[in-house]
C-alpha cells in the first residue's frame, strides 16, 4: 500500500493539491474563499486592484497546502506528513538528510505516530518543505487551476462577495465607487499568458484571434466577472474575447465558456 501511495505522489503533488483546492473552494473544511479571507485577514485589494504575477489564487493555494499539513500535525498524524513530504522532496532531488541528523534520528523506518521523535521530525520536514519547495508546487497547482474556467468562475464569484463590501472611503484611489474596482491596463505578461491559455480564441464565440491569416479581429482582454458586478483585476478573472463579444457583453452578463479543446474528436 505504501509503495502505491508514494508513487502517486511522485510528480503529482501539484495535481493532488489542485484537487484539494477545488474541494476546499466548495466548502470541504469551511475554508472557502470568503472564510479564508476572514480567517487569515486578507486585504483583497493587495491583489485585486491591479494584476500581480503572484495572484490571490497563489496565496489561497499556499495556505490550503500548509493548512492541510499543519492540521495533520495538530491531530498527531506525523507519519502521514512524513510519508506525504518525503516522496516529493526525493522527486525534486532535495537533500533533507541533515534534518534527521540534527535530532539524532538514525532510522526513519522505526518511527510511528505515537513517538515524539516522529512529531519533531515531521515539523522540521514541513518547515524545510515550506522554505525550499512549496512555492514550486503551489505555482504548478496554480497552472493547473488557471486552465479550469469553471473553477476560476467559482473563485471569482466568491471573491466578488468580498469586493462588494469594500467602501470607496477606505480605498479612494482604487475604487470607482463602493464595491467597484477601477479599470486598469493589463500588462503584456498577462496578455501573453491569457492568449496562450485560451489558444488565441475568443472565449465566448470561438473566433480565431491569432492574426495569422487575417487582421480584422482585434483581441480584447475581458473580466470574467465584470468590474461593475464586483469583479477583480486579479489575473484569475481575465479571459480572451473578440471585440464584438466584449462590446456586446457590457456589464449585464457574466459569461464564459469552459473551453477544454480536445486533442482529437472521438
Ligand atoms: Zn467573440
Can you describe what's shown?
Keywords: Endonuclease, Hydrolase, Nuclease. One of its GO terms (molecular function) is endonuclease activity. Residues 189-247 form the HNH nuclease domain. It holds the Pfam family HNH. InterPro entries: HNH, HNH_nuc. With 266 residues, this protein is mostly helical. It has two domains: 2-142, no CATH class; 173-249, DNA Binding (I), subunit A (Orthogonal Bundle), CATH 1.10.30. Helix content is 50%, strand content 6%. The chain has twelve helices and four strands. It has helices at residues 2-9, 13-25, 33-39, 45-48, 56-74, 78-91, 97-102, 116-132, 134-146, 149-164, 188-197, 243-249, and strands at residues 175-177, 180-181, 219-223, 238-242. The strands form two sheets. The protein has a two-stranded antiparallel sheet. The protein has a two-stranded antiparallel sheet with strand order 3-4. Strand 1 (175-177) and strand 2 form a beta hairpin. Helix 1 packs across helix 6 (78-91). The longest helix is centred in the first third of the chain and has 19 residues, at 56-74. It is globular and about 70 Å long. The two termini are 35 Å apart. The protein binds zinc ion.
How would you summarize what this structure contains?
With 266 residues, this protein is mainly alpha-helical. It is built from 12 helices and 4 strands; from the N terminus they run H-H-H-H-H-H-H-H-H-H-E-E-H-E-E-H. The chain has helices at residues 2-9, 13-25, 33-39, 45-48, 56-74, 78-91, 97-102, 116-132, 134-146, 149-164, 188-197, 243-249; strands at residues 175-177, 180-181, 219-223, 238-242.
